[in-house]
Amino acid sequence: MGNFEFPWQYNFPPFFTLQPNADTRRKQLDAWRSLVLDYHRHNKQYTLDIAEAQSSDLFFNKSINRKLSLESINTVLEELRKTENLEWKDKSKKQCMIMWRSPAEWAKLIYQWVTNNGMNNTVCTIYELQNGDDTKDEDFHGLDSWLLDKALKLLVSQHKAETISYDGSDGVKFF
Amino acid sequence: MHRRGAGIAAIKKKNLAQARYKDKGTELASEQLTQLSKQLDSFRSYLEDFASKHKGEIRKDADFRRQFQEMCAAIGVDPLASGKGFWSEMLGYGDFYYELGVQIIEVCMATNHRNGGLIDIEELRLRLIASTGRNRQDITTDDLLMAIKKLKVLGNGFTIIPTGRSQIIQSVPRELTLDHTAVLKAAEGKAFVTSEELQKELKWEKERSYRALDYMVKEGLAWVDDQSRPHQQYWFPGLFSDSMAAA
User: What is the pLDDT averaged over residues B145-161?
Assistant: First the structure.
């Protein structure tokens, strides 16, 4: 995985100060929104911890010594929530899921893989899907359990899959 | 005292002479006219020769283009006055600037969301080269200024703001007063300015500096940096390039 390429704004010092002008702030928040998504997509990360966020290089550009305040980080996260790219894990809003791909998109990818490999009407364990050798080259390899669960539930509701428990390990049968 | 009277004969004679002079005058004028148009014809054919011989150089070589421009200016010809006619047909010379003009508009529109319609001419040049590929290595800022001046025929959309060291191109019609251009000049080179600098360097009252800066924030031209020390900085994305960041 190559180094993440930050957008030009990341080196523009006032990018780390929430702008007073409404139009400018709109552009700024849009840029932050894409940056957070791109950053997580690049690093294949799915969760964000508020306590760690401020020291992460995503929100803190050490080379120009500018960081986004906690309050501003929350404003950016709220933007992501509005566009359904974020879901809080807990009520106290300490940890959240960053969904750079929606559960529906994940569901589609997984089902495509199933069909392409003639796995219809067979059973996979959740572990195999996430960590198995067969999925090594797939984007959903290593997918966060919480997100995978959401995607599978969607497939179940579309009658494309059925979740089963067998011998204490969770599995899924695709149709 | 005896004076020769002005008899009928004398008047007739005078009239005759006047008529002859007039005829001669017309004759001379028409001779000059034919001469002149002959000269113009040969001038034109020389220029056509020159043009077709050096067509490639004019399009490719920025220095050659500039000298050609100067030559035309010296004899009072504006090769860009019209897109049609022999200049553009022979040289593709007008086309060169018209194409450039269109590309300038494209770059300004594409960067408008970032810079609010203000861009440093060097930045514009680099972006233009990047967007049009390797064949455009030799576009100079002179070429850009020329093309932008030609864009004026489209209305007052484009303004060139001289800033001492360089020029800033404004692509969104907007009222900028002398105070605002003074702020841009002060910010040039580092892309930011503080109220304190304006007070010190321009001998402005605090109130005047904030009035100018606040207007530019309101117009989306400037961004506020609350984390700068010791003073709050006002940044201009149109003057900012990535290389400035680490400083």
Answer: 80
In angstroms, what separates the C-alpha of B104 from chain A's closest C-alpha?
Answer: 21
B164, B193, B208 - which closes a domain: B164
Domains in chain A, number = 2
For residue B192, which residues of chain A lie inside 8 Å, CB to CB? 13
CA angle at B240 for the pair B148 and A16, rounded to the nearest 5°: 140
pLDDT tens sequence for chain A (175 residues): 578 899 999 999 999 999 999 999 999 999 999 999 999 989 888 889 988 888 899 999 999 999 999 999 999 999 999 988 998 888 888 889 998 888 888 888 888 888 888 777 778 877 777 777 777 777 778 788 888 888 888 888 887 777 877 777 777 777 8
In a domain, B229, yes or no: yes
Which of A26, A25, A30 has the alpha carbon at shortest distance from A14? A25
* Positive or negative: CA dihedral B93, B95, B99, B104: positive
Q: A142 — alpha (psi -120 to 50), left (phi > 0) or beta?
A: left
B217 contact A CB<8A: yes
Sort strands B159-162 and B223-225 into parallel, antiparallel or unpaired: unpaired
Contacts of A102 (CB under 8 A, 6+ apart): A84, A85
Query: Are B156 and B57 contained in the same domain?
Result: yes
Distance of residue B236 Cα from the nearest chain A Cα, in angstroms: 9
The token pair at A168 is: 């204490």
Query: Residue A161: beta bridge partners?
Result: A174
Cα B203 from chain centre: 32
Q: Which residues contact B207 (CB under 8 A, 6 or more apart)?
A: none
**Does the pLDDT value for residue B138 go beyond 90?**
no
User: Would the ipTM clear 0.90, i.e. be above it?
Assistant: no
CA–CA distances in Å: residue B142 to residues B75, B104, B145:
20, 13, 5
CB atoms B223 and A24 under 8 Å: yes
Domain extent at residue B199: 175-246
Domain for residue B126, yes or no?
yes
